[in-house]
Amino acid sequence: MSAYFFSFPLDAKLQQTLDDLLTNHAKGQYADASVPVALAVGTTDGVIKALALDVIDILKTNGEGAGILGMLANLLKSTMHTLIKQIMGKVSPAEQDKLAAYLSRRRVMVNGAARFGFSMPDAVGSRFEAVLKRIAAGDMANSREDLTTAMNEFVNLSTACFYDEFTGALELGFVKQKMVNLGRSAILKGSQSAVAKLFVSMSDDDLKRVCAHYDSMFVKA
């Protein structure tokens, strides 16, 4: 049975670090506390690269769309790097157990290759599949509006899978939980604002190129 995924390949060294952590954890071996922190930063940067920085490269840093994504990338990176530094301390064995489970869920196999991501509900996946095919075929009627709707759904889904599941694996007191809540609010607000402006600012040719990139990540396997 086919399933829909959002996923992308990690840097080879980072993927090896993730694989080693999961392999060793399955043997009852815990990593140095610096390893989960490095994975948190690395996978965060991977998500930002796939969804924003690579798109900026496609747009060749020109136009309103590149500017919108540049601001979003800066917001996500500064928010997440600061948050990771503040909420990840020694990383206890109990936290490592939960983080290993989280990373195992995010390590997905798509067409025989290990990627970082998550499975999507059929309704969301089929919506992306349909609108990306329409745009690839040059059918732009209502496509920007439909893609905006699909991406807003994706923002909520990815926040749950990447942000909520990650922070939920950590033992947080009142102050750190408040930081997490504020970070979540900032990320959602910034992402939703960017999505609302992004696609309407692109030419048809730029939109086709960007959607071809999305098509490599929103896959049916």
Number of DSSP strands?
4
Tell me the span between the first and last alpha carbons: 9 Å
Largest sheet: 4 strands, antiparallel
Pick out the low-confidence regions. none
| Shape estimate | globular
What series of H and E elements makes up the topology?
EHHHHEEHHHHE
The structural class is alpha+beta
Separate helix tally: 8
Report the helical percentage.
over 70%
Description:
It is a single chain. 32% of the residues are buried. The chain starts with a strand and ends with a strand. It contains eight helices and four strands. Helix 1 (12-26) packs antiparallel against helix 2 (34-58) and helix 4 packs antiparallel against helix 6. It has helices spanning 12-26, 34-58, 63-87, 93-106, 122-136, 143-168, 174-198, 204-215, and strands at 4-8, 107-110, 113-120, 218-220. It has 221 residues and is an alpha+beta fold. The longest helix is centred in the last third of the chain and has 26 residues, at 143-168. The chain is globular, with a radius of gyration of 18 Å. It has a four-stranded antiparallel beta sheet.
Question: Can you summarize this structure?
Answer:
This protein has helices spanning 12-26, 34-58, 63-87, 93-106, 122-136, 143-168, 174-198, 204-215, and strands spanning 4-8, 107-110, 113-120, 218-220. It is an alpha+beta fold and 221 residues long.
List its salient traits.
single chain, four-stranded antiparallel β-sheet, 8 helices, 4 strands
